[in-house]
Q: What sequence folds into this?
């Protein structure tokens, strides 16, 4: 689990990021979880955008992705979800 201080740090780091995944009408599926997992391994911190035509609410989407990938939800702001997962090979982010 992330501490409040770590979440604040990650939110600041994610501020300038653009969402690299979009969750639409079909919701979260296995293929998406796999791709998000690969992106997290490369980048550690990503944003996922929940489109307005998505049938599930953003909290459900966030928890499904977090569960599927083993990532932490650093923030849900507007329709964007900020996810963090420590990389095994490409460690870039040093948490406080």
A:
């Amino acid at each position: 689990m992330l501490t409040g201080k770590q979440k604040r740090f990650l939110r600041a780091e994610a501020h300038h990021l653009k969402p690299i995944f979009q969750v639409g009408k079909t919701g979260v599926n296995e293929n998406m979880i796999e791709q998000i997992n690969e992106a997290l391994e490369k980048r550690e911190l990503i944003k996922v955008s929940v489109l307005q035509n998505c049938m599930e609410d953003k909290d459900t989407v966030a928890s499904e992705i977090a569960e599927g990938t083993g990532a932490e939800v650093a923030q849900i702001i507007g329709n964007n979800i900020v996810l963090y997962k420590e990389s095994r090979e490409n460690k870039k982010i040093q948490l406080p």
About this structure: The longest strand covers residues 45-50.
